[in-house]
Amino acid sequence: MNADNAEPDLLDQVGGTDGLRRIVDEMYVRVLADNELAPFFEGVEMDKLVRMQTEFIASITSGDIAYTGADLTKVHAGRGITRQHFTQFVSHLTDALEAHQVTPHAIDQVLGKLAMYSDKVTGSANVDG
Ligand code: HEM
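Structure for Group 1 truncated hemoglobin, as requested:
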């Protein structure tokens, strides 16, 4: 919970870390079933990725969680990820959030926060690595 804010912590609104973990799991099921996105994840250790992605989203939706993974610009650099890929990826997260009955208001807030990372993921702001 967020002590100095009337609204509950955004992480609580998506079901806490356990709920978020299930949502992220479902998101990657959808991503891997998407022919345009699946090739990016060939050979990737998905258990670890689900864990790190859950931690990352938890860290941007709660003041209490720290992200301990790799720098987002570095981890996505050189993979050829376009804005279209980014949008498609986020749409699978949206579907997973909806499937877990997260409110439209909370979904909007999560998407707004993630949008701030699109340049890092697509390399648009990545001039020197
Ligand atoms: C909001 C968008 C995204 C976020 C927040 C995000 C976040 C992350 C995080 C936290 C990791 C794990 C870093 C670590 O292991 O320490 C990761 C890895 C990865 N991401 Fe993303 N990602 C996003 C979008 C995408 C998209 C659109 C693609 C490709 C279409 C992608 C492909 C990958 C791949 C292939 C890895 C695994 C790298 C490896 O372990 O070798 N990501 N991402």
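The radius of gyration is 15 Å.
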